[in-house]
Amino acid sequence: MIKSLTTAATGMQAQQTNMDVIANNLANVSTSGFKKSRAEFEDLMYQTVKEPGAVSGLNSISPTGVQTGLGVRTAAIQKDFEVGAGKITKNALDIQIEGPGFFPLQLPDGQIGYTRDGQFKKDPQGRIVDKNGNALQPEIVIPPNAAGIDISGNGTVSATVGNSMVPQVIGQIQLVNFVNPAGLKAMGKNVFMPSGSSGLPVQGQPGLNGLGELAQGQVEASNVNIVDEMVNMITAQRAYETNSKVIQASDQMLQSVNQLR
After folding, report:
1. What is the mean pLDDT of residues 218-244?
2. What angle, 0 to 180 degrees and rounded to 10, lies between the N-to-C axes of helices 3-27 and 226-258?
């Protein structure tokens, strides 16, 4: 059987995966705190007819050998944690991390998840929560009679309570970072979970130990570049079409063999 049939098929599968990644990036171009992904590929094992450097005659060796590649596969889909552009909202509970770091959240199952999405709200108890009701950790409760909320760059949360003109500190926002953020497991809903390759979470105060500072009244936009993704999509489409042409050409070669008398 002609190997190019299966080799080209692996190329089509790889480009289909590439297109799936690009489609997800474009679908989340307006998702706050979203981080784009990139598909990475590697070649498969080779069928070796002659080893490079094998003896080919008296006092001579093969300079290159004879090796035929058997295709490609998806090696990784990596998240790009480049900081997205800031989007001004003037909402007191919208917070952007200007640099590395994640907000820790208490998930419904008791685990701690991590997010770059700083669009926070108040729940009925006054806790600061994300759009899915997951409480920011450590927990911060806003007094019901708070007239204004101020969040400093180092994460200090102050509120003007009642008729008092002096703001009172009601909490401290902490950020978390990882040795290898690209190793985090994406859970959906803008939440990441640690994995064996991300390393352990390291918590600290915003602005210290390499963590970014906070900016109130703005959120981090998606870091997807539409122009780049459109170019990537065209490249993937052309590569898919080319691999399909290889399958058609291989089929025609087999057809010619079948017609031999």
Report:
1. 96
2. 160
